[in-house]
Amino acid sequence: MSQTILYARVSTAEQTTAHQKTQAEQAGFKIDRVVADEGISGVSVDFADRPGAKRLFDMLRPGDVLVVRWVDRLGRNYDDVTHTIRALMAQGVVIRTVINNFTFDGATTNAVQKAIRDSLIAFMAAMSQAQAEATKEAQKAGIAHAKVTEGKYLGRKPSYSRKTLLAVCDALSASVSVSEIARTHGLSRQAVIRIKDHPEQAEAALARWTQQSQE
């Protein structure tokens, strides 16, 4: 008998395992089991090296459905994501995403459908890596800007923590709507829009206030 397993990678306070399970259930998934890697960075740790992921590969059987919030849960960069998805499909596992409800099924035999599936995998894996790189660059730019303006007017204190900012950027990369992000993280739509349009300024504001609190 097949089972539906949710894999959750948790690296921020806002994105708890329980929260990701609730999101999946609200999207219509009936989750039989949950496997999680908590406190694991999606940027620096390959999927195959995560303790939860290792258990997952041992647990999954042909015909099982693996549910993930988004493809970035399955790897740290383009190569890792695509390799992981293909390895799971080769094992007979169907991968489905909570956001946008994408399905990746290795049982597909139609050439056109396979081409569309493989193109979608490549595109989303590339988007995940691009967003991770953009977030790192925004952090660097924000810290540099904060150093330049050190001792000057701090501006309004951000309404979000760094963990919230990372979660918002993560959701934006997955094309979640501004309204939904604001509602999920207790922010105003204007705050989310500012983060979307000027991530480096959001990082700079956090860096300035972090410096102030440490003085």
UniProtKB/TrEMBL annotation:
<feature type="domain" description="Resolvase/invertase-type recombinase catalytic">
    <location>
        <begin position="3"/>
        <end position="150"/>
    </location>
</feature>
<dbReference type="InterPro" id="IPR006118">
    <property type="entry name" value="Recombinase_CS"/>
</dbReference>
<comment type="similarity">
    <text>Belongs to the site-specific recombinase resolvase family.</text>
</comment>
<keyword id="KW-0238">DNA-binding</keyword>
<keyword id="KW-0233">DNA recombination</keyword>
<dbReference type="Pfam" id="PF00239">
    <property type="entry name" value="Resolvase"/>
</dbReference>
<protein>
    <submittedName>
        <fullName>Recombinase family protein</fullName>
    </submittedName>
</protein>
<dbReference type="InterPro" id="IPR050639">
    <property type="entry name" value="SSR_resolvase"/>
</dbReference>
<keyword id="KW-0229">DNA integration</keyword>
<feature type="active site" description="O-(5'-phospho-DNA)-serine intermediate">
    <location>
        <position position="11"/>
    </location>
</feature>
<dbReference type="InterPro" id="IPR036162">
    <property type="entry name" value="Resolvase-like_N_sf"/>
</dbReference>
<dbReference type="InterPro" id="IPR006119">
    <property type="entry name" value="Resolv_N"/>
</dbReference>
